[in-house]
Amino acid sequence: PRQGGPSRSVGNAATHAALPSWQQIMEGSRAVGEAAEQHNYILLYYHYVKLGRLEDVATWLKEVACISLGGRVRVALDGLNCTLSGPWSALQDHIEHIQNNPVFGQHRTRIDFKLSADERPGVSSRHQRECGMNALHVRVVKELVTLGPLAEGLAAPIEEAGKHLSPQEFHAGITAQEDAVILDARNLYEHRIGHFKIDGVPSLLPPIRQFSELPAWIDANQEKLRNKKIFMYCTGGVRCERASAYVRMKGREFVDVVQLSGGIHRYLEAFPDGGVFCGQNFVFDQRLSHAGAARLHAAVGNCISCNRPHDDYSPRHRCHACRMLILLCDACATLSAPENDSQTKEGDGACCSKNPPQVLCEICREGRGAHAVRKFAPEEGGSMSVCTASKGSRKRPLRILCLHGFRQSARSLQGRTASLRRKLKECASLAYVDAPILVPPLATNDDCGEPGRDRHAPPVPRHAWLVERLSGTMPVNRHAICEDTESERGKQDEQCMHTQVSRMMHFRPTYSWDKIVWAEKADKTCIALHQHKLQAAGFSVSLEYLRHVFATQGPFDGVMGFSQGAAIASALCGLKEGSRLCEEIKFQFVILCSGFASPVADHKSLFLQKLSIPSLHIFDGTSQNDSQVDTQESERLANLYAKATILRHGQGHMIPCTAAFVARIRDFLDQFVASPTTDCQP
Fold first, then answer.
1. Structure pTM?
2. Which residues contact 614 (CB under 8 A, 6 or more apart)?
């Protein structure tokens, strides 16, 4: 066991003969006693089993089996896939719940539970959020791991997957087997920092961004696998179940496939010195990566800029075009970052929260589109394949800046458009940013924060592009205002608000709870219909803020605005038509969702003539279920554009994401994908 607690598994002796039993794990935890409770632990496991009533299973997991735990749980018709974090005792309780629940089948006692001490207890909240480990996330999904359309109809992995080999058997096989080939089933950013390497044995490292691209790579390089003894591996084993089955379905010449049971995780436990695995094992939790206990291997990754040894993903640098993780040393990151990089409070997240280095990954450098249809060609040598994008495709997807509504945030809009973002990923990349003006929470119980948040904790910050001149909508900073009484609020004007907001701005409000003082209560009438007509102050603040966003995070091909964000986007269009927009703010089109014309009095002159910029208008136009923005206002906004495309729906104040609706949005975007502007090339 590692310091502070065991790092063992729970497994069935028939499946994992070398692994300790559940009873041994329990005895080990008692010996550790209270010391184990002082540390955090990570639990990884998957279990292929036919499940029904998925929503009920998900509810049971959230309310019974995962109490006091954080992490990600995927519930699908074909089983469970879990990465959990928490105290040792809570993880023990979770394992007992899973093993005692008959819903998970007769083989539930054979699940390989992989338990490890959290080797990076001081990881930032931003890292935890990016990894999905800051809270419990239980998702009902179609399948545990997605292998893409080429694998549709594939038989259940448990029936067709390659034979499981223990770490010892796998090690002996790849070091002695003739005609062997090692196939890594992970993504490029994972095997950059660690992979199996043996002299004389081909090690295939597919250059893929996501698991669903693996079948296309296998199809293009199947001659390297034909009549070979294929040793396949991944992080913990779940992807090999699907990938090995896909290889075996190709026929007799591809049936000799074996997979590393328990993945790299188990191998490094069996071989603390790393064995023939060089580097570190990339993991999808706050640890980011881990190596064998002995940590004898030097870094195998390299800085993408200077090519020096480097394997640290903790800065979370990403490709400027496709957003895949890249390795960039501190020196090169400093040189590559845009000038005047603003400071951001730790934990603000990745929704355009800071100025990242503008560096491309290996795939984008070779001219492959970020989300273009990828056609792999057979490799002519080395471990990297040649990939060509489909004819006429862009080098990257359209970049669209998304502006949220009143009393919302970048994160809330990102959540509301999560399904739409996934369905448009082939042609568009959505970027989200918080508005610069902080507004107090509503005086209701409906705005007490994120799910699972302590109701007594300070409220989640809300943002706005426009506010009323008076009332409790001013951002209150303890350094600027020590006391906020009703009479003092009545004396505030836009110039004072501009001064306060500019202190908090830069690129995104750099707030912290010990510096923010909220007004005691907010006017409940601000949720009424037509309340947006009263919010006409603060545009100069928002315009200056957006200028900085475009200058530091651009270029953007288009702007999408929701509700009040649509009013701001339409004002930008009017300024653009009148050549009154600063040169930093450039875009080709707008998407206005549940929109209305800007209520700022000076903006009426912007719409005396119809605007020529292409626009897509999405709003409730059939049943008038939108309780925030009247349908007629959205209609009037659409009539201000000469090239307006209108999509009406009947689902209220939201953006539908049905297949038919998304197809029409994609049709609108296709005209810009086909003829990209040079201004928007990275």
1. 0.53
2. 588, 589, 590, 643, 645, 668, 671, 672
